[in-house]
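batch_manifest entry 22 of 60
target: LuxR family transcriptional regulator
source organism: Nonomuraea glycinis
requested by: lab member K.T.
priority: normal
notes from requester: please return tokens only, no post-processing; we will run our own comparison against the previous entry in this batch. if the run fails, retry once and flag.
--- input ---
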Amino acid sequence: MDRLAAALALPPSVLVVEGEAGIGKSRLVTELLARPEAAGRRILSGGCGQIREPFPLGPLVEALRSTGGELAGAALSPVAGALRGLFPELAHVLPKPPEPLDDRAAERHRLFRGLGEVLAALGPAVLVVEDAHWADEQTVEFLSYLLGNQPGSLSIVVTYRGEEVPAGVRALTARPRDVLTHEHVVLAPLDEGQTRALAAAILGSEEVSAEFAAHLCVRASGLPLAIQELLALLRTRGALIPWAGGWARRTLDALDVPSGVRSSVRERVGRLSPAARAVTEAAAVLQLAVPLAVLIGVTGLPPAAVADGVDEALDAGLFAEREGMVGFRHVLAAQAVYEGVPLGRRQTLHAAAADAVQGLVPVPLGQVAHHLRQAGRDDDWVTAARRAADQAVELGDDAEAARLLEDVLRRGRLPEPVQAELTVRLGWIATEVLHVPDICDLFAAALQGEPPRAVRGELRLLLALHLNLARSDPARERREMAAAVDDLGDRPELAAWAMMALGLPTAPGTSLDEHVAWLDRALETVPAIGEPTMRLYLQGKIVMALVLIGDPRWRDLAEGMEQEVAGLPAHRRTVNVPFSIGAAAVLTGDHHLARRLLTIALERGAEIDATGPIAVRSRASLLQVAYLSGAWEGLARELKELGEELSERPERDTLALATAGLLLAEGDLDAARSRFLDQMRIGLTTDTADLPFPATALLRLGIARGTAPAALAETAEAVAAWEANGLWPLGVRALPALTEALLAAGRREEAAGAVARYESGLRGLDAPLAVPALEHARGHLAAGTGRWPEAVAHFTAAAAGYELLPAAYEAAQAREQAAACLLEAGDDTAEPALKAVLAEYERLEARWDLDRATQLGRLHGLRTGRRRGSGDPERGLTARQWEVARLVATGLTNQQIARELFLSAKTVDKHLSAAMQKFGARSRTELARHLERPIHD
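--- output ---
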């Protein structure tokens, strides 16, 4: 409590309370808000419901809809007028609604800005979002937006069940911005002592017997709610007796107290009057707090009887009242009663509930659909669910619309035309959500109904798009896409989309000529598209493909498109143009262009939706640019944080490659190798454009370990795949490592042949990596025959070319190899050249490379002058071993050190063992004592 209160007192702040159901999260928050630290601050509280509604941002609506008095006279900008549709109760204090936009994502972002402005206008406040494990996707997106734009006087309190919370909710509260005060409390079950204290407090006595407390703790599993319920039941039974100033049970053997909540709640309900029992059953079916009129409608009892039953349930502590509505105090109690209602009566109550809630304003269509389905009224459920999905789309809640439509398609009995129509609708909606559902089987089912040709083509296109998102079956994806083209003759925008997709040169086993033919057809079809945003979107994807194959036409096309896009309002399709071209430029090594375009995409994408797909993908690709260009400071942490957000999306592969690259440079070779092998396996079946990265790393590892032949064998399929696809501008990245590995394996003619093959393949192409990578490979050929001056010239030219991109890590490797040749030649400039390389590796914190280059100098008798902070040369510790030893001395465990340094626990153990051996330490304590001693130069 003190930790939470301290954070609450330092806004802007975010407080997280995590714990299982019944652990006391809500009670803790209630007590927190009664503390002096919350005095003078407006409390805005809303909860997420288990029954989803097609009304997005439910907890925010609940928290803000009654703030009209506080907002009267507030200086709100026109953007706050976007909230009128969400808050009809506040229409009198909100500005006029702005003109509608033609982009739902842009509308959503404007809505988020309006909410942020209203929260700021309400002055010092605490926003409480309860049960965030049930939050709808828009609420999660808004919280992410708010945490990035939090008013200075606002504190946010979030509660959730840790075992049920989605990764996105946990990620957004895990590492908020540095300017926010952050506290995260995980509530654990009570032990016997805590149970004894709670029981005494509930019973109003000084203490209870230790034996009684132990029994109570076991039966309640340490859950405060269960303890409360069991004590209430024992009191009702008369099973408590006074004991030396406290309380005890009658006899342990005679009293059979049910474990957990379920039996105790049911027994307490069973002691109520018939009318009160009927009311509790109706409330259990409804699940949510409702007005008294709804309970009257569900029970079918006279209003007076229902009122008496509600009062009885309130007196028994089962119900709670809030703002004129009543319902169960806790969801676990409602669930316990619900499970005890016989199936037939349960269905009858659900049917009555469906009718009763339709009298609410606005009509909760999600609840209507839920009750109709549980009542077994399938046809009515389908109709209600479709209405709810329509409403969700109108309100911009794509995730909820997708969930409803998927449910209808999987469980409803639909005529074939309706099935096809809804499947098409679901297919497009699902491409807009952050966590795309796996619905490929639904497209296949709709296609079996033999829909009209145009519908069939759209279904095939959507099936192919979702197969691509799932990365599950590339061969089937291409078959469906090609079949779609034949069916979409009257839909140029969809036909061009299919042609563009078939032209992407990343599908394994497809020739470059076939890709180019599809791209040319797409370019011919695009002018027939009347809608400008769709035309630009598809042109951007076509140009992306041209970038990947080095087709020089792409620059003129891109320049014209960039000018046109700049003159249009931000729209997710037009923002996709700089993203698509920028993402391709990352792979070809054009890092300046990639960073510029991806920054534009991120900024304009954030205008539309800061947490939407374009913004998130742009962030992922910008991190990849940071890795490839050598901007590594803080990169590991950023990769980890974004990786947690993208745990269920394809973009995680982009981050995985950069993460593995950092592991390799840090010297965590086994972990890096494992990840690169995983990524190569994925690329071989889904996207050949990603293959040069892992192949390069695996070849470098093989060379370093003296296993070049094995490395060549395990990467041969990948090299053949990108060469077959004509991806010379991408594959040249791996050429230096491939050439060096072939030379190390004694296959000189093949090495020379590889360089000649890439020289030929790259001729006439726009390939930024070509010049430095070819020079790098030629340097290896020259060094392989002892032509040291020639090799130095090639390696130096390669480094200069890499630095222009920039590609600092590759430049440092080329300069290291130039220094090695200078050492072999006995050149006086070798020592300063090598020291410059060491300095660059130090800057990058590339420990593996630093150790290798240091060893190179020592072999030639040079004093490399590595800084003390990089390790302990007196005892031969590497920098990483020194770092691990230093953290051990602070008292951290291996697991904690692994998290701190972004290593595996196994790697930490390996570094620790090496450090202890070099110090002669037999324990962690002894190692710490060694580190306390001064080190003499």
